[in-house]
């Protein structure tokens, strides 16, 4: 299994997930700061020419959310996703998709100081997304309740980057407590080390 990525990018989320799974994998640096993502060999892996991307035998997966979902299913023994017949699978999928469909565009809205009509845009607007995230992480400890899942890797990395790393999102007590819980996971700490030492 090979993870293609670069330091200080969304590759962090994929490494965190690989570490949660206990996967054996190689990290392959795609030097996006010098344009390596446009090489034809990498284009064949991710036509968007962005990182991260995962290659597992014949399987190729790009998009960090899809990589997390793929890994949760690929390593069922890690128990990072409710099974298909379990009721929790519904909320699990909801939060897996909420990250890319709502959190990401809401961060872009905030970062670019855009004015949007919340009932027209699919993500409902930045303030709404932040309020919904606060509600989601309040019951604790994890987004599905007692069980940590790939949905926490998605939402946890969104909040870690939004609140702590980029300080784009004003913190709230529920965010701080949730991010602290995420950061206390050994897999999160290993991912931080591996990502910063990616040469
Ligand atoms: N939706 C993609 C976004 C990936 C993305 O934007 N990656 C950035 C780094 S965080 C990148 O590769 N940028 C290089 C470029 O666009 O040339 C995902 O979640 O994987």
Chain-wise SSE layout:
Elements: E1 2-5, H1 11-21, E2 26-29, H2 40-45, E3 53-56, E4 59-62, H3 64-74, H4 88-111, H5 126-137, H6 150-165, H7 173-183, H8 186-196
Parallel strand pairs: 1-2
Antiparallel strand pairs: 1-3, 3-4
Helix pairs in contact: 1-3, 1-6, 1-8, 3-6, 4-5, 4-6, 6-7
The structure holds glutathione.
Briefly summarize what is shown.
The chain has helices at residues 11-21, 40-45, 64-74, 88-111, 126-137, 150-165, 173-183, 186-196, and strands spanning 2-5, 26-29, 53-56, 59-62. With 199 residues, it is an alpha+beta fold. It has two domains: 2-78 and 188-196, Glutaredoxin, CATH 3.40.30.10; 88-185, Glutathione S-transferase Yfyf (Class Pi), Chain A, domain 2, CATH 1.20.1050.10.
Mean of pLDDT: 97
How would you sum up the major sheet? 4 strands, mixed
Structural class: alpha+beta
Number of strands: 4
Cα-atom radius of gyration: 17 Å
What would the principal axes of the Cα set say about the shape?
Answer: globular
The CATH architecture of the largest domain? Up-down Bundle
Distance between the termini: 18 Å
Give the SSE order as H and E letters. Answer: EHEHEEHHHHHH
Provide the CATH topology of the largest domain: Glutathione S-transferase Yfyf (Class Pi), Chain A, domain 2
> Could you name the CATH class of the largest domain?
Mainly Alpha
Strand order of the largest sheet: 2-1-3-4
- State the helicity in percent bands: 40-55%
The unique ligands bound to this protein are: glutathione
Stretches where pLDDT falls below 50 for ≥5 residues?
none
Number of domains: 2
Q: How large is the count of helical segments? A: 8
